[in-house]
Design brief:
Elements lengths: L1 H16 L2 E2 H10 L9 H13 L3 E3 L9 E4 L1 H12 L10 H7 L6 H31 L4 H35 L9
Amino acid sequence: MARTRQTETAVLGALSVMPMTGYAVREAIRDVLGHFWSESFGQIYPALSALERQGHVDREGKERTGSSVFVITPSGEGRLRELLAAPIQPAPPRNGLLLRLFFGRQLGPEVCQSLLENAKADAERRLTEFKAIRNQIAADEATTADHLYWLLTVSAGEHGARSVISWAEESIATLLEQTPLPVDAHE
């Protein structure tokens, strides 16, 4: 049930910014919320149908086929505020990198170092993306009332990326300090 509520929150939140098709909702969630949230088509369309049945969204023009545009209703705005005010349900962590490093003895220090270097490069790429997101937000005059709140999420992403970079650098240094140098067989 918690997953359904989270999907409802993401869908209603996207529609609170502007009316859009189901496809556009998915794209907005992927492109705008993607640095901290994801939903699949398999979650979005059933959520839209359920929200429509509950009166929280309506289809513009009542078109039942094709690319209908969904609009959040006053009931949907109330539901969104209710969902946003509910306690956050913690998600169990799943981090493939940490799983591999935890069992790193099986991989060896060179592979672990490579994994850390890739994580650092990925975090550096994300920092560049966050800068572009900041610029997009600043340029979007139609949503200035949301800018402060959107920038809080961008800031969290930036801090997270910087943290990964720092941690990866420290971890690589630790690996290099703790890993014995290979002995030359000819000595």
